[in-house]
UniProtKB/TrEMBL annotation:
Family classification: Belongs to the LptE lipoprotein family.
Organism per entry: Thioalkalicoccus limnaeus
Keyword DNA damage carried by entry: no
Localization per record: Cell outer membrane
Gene for this chain: lptE
Main location: membrane
Function: Together with LptD, is involved in the assembly of lipopolysaccharide (LPS) at the surface of the outer membrane. Required for the proper assembly of LptD. Binds LPS and may serve as the LPS recognition site at the outer membrane.
UniProt protein name: LPS-assembly lipoprotein LptE
Length: 177
């Protein structure tokens, strides 16, 4: 008699009924509390179209543009067509040493991103007056991990740009309520 094949004796994987009910109940509770993924609908669709002045010329402008595709907002390049204009007035980034060892070797840096923006309505009214966003992260610099420090710093700056874009959209949304 031939030996049974492993796939013949395999039983389908089934969750016990109580686990299935727990998964369903959790999904219902999370859905009922108003939970939404971040960044998908930060602005109401009435603001179509939106103009980000300076768009890809600034890190904050690029981060703002990256947030729009998941929403119901349409971007425009025409100021006359825009219902809302977000203007990036200034931005900068920098770093400074925050910790050294006894021999003077740097152990940690503070990475900083600063941006100033304003938002204007279609008729030029100020929706959000000029405001600054100042974000800071600490970057550890251990001497054992020499490779990849510059890439890690750039990743941290990219996260700072994304955080700043989220804050700009959050402030605009709050101003429009």
């Amino acid at each position: 008699m031939p030996a049974p094949r492993p796939d013949q004796d395999a039983k389908p994987c089934r969750l016990p009924r109580w686990r299935l009910m727990l998964v369903i109940a959790t999904a219902l509770v999370v859905g009922a509390c108003g939970f939404q993924l971040r960044g998908t609908d930060m602005l109401p669709p009435e603001l179509n179209p939106l103009l980000i002045e300076g768009g890809g010329a600034t890190a904050l402008g690029r981060a703002l543009i990256a947030r729009i595709p998941g929403s119901q907002i349409r971007l425009t390049e025409d100021p006359a067509e825009a219902q809302v204009r977000i203007r990036v007035l200034d931005e900068g980034r920098g770093s400074r040493v925050v910790a050294v060892d006894r021999q003077g070797k740097v152990l940690a840096y503070e990475l900083r991103f600063r941006a100033t923006f304003e938002a204007l309505g279609a008729d030029g009214q100020v929706l959000v007056p000029p405001q600054s966003i100042d974000l800071v992260r600490t970057f550890d610099d251990p001497d054992i991990e020499v490779l990849g420090k510059q890439e890690e710093a750039e990743m941290i700056f990219a996260d700072l740009h994304d955080d700043a874009a989220d804050r700009v959209l959050l402030r605009l949304r709050a101003a429009l309520r």
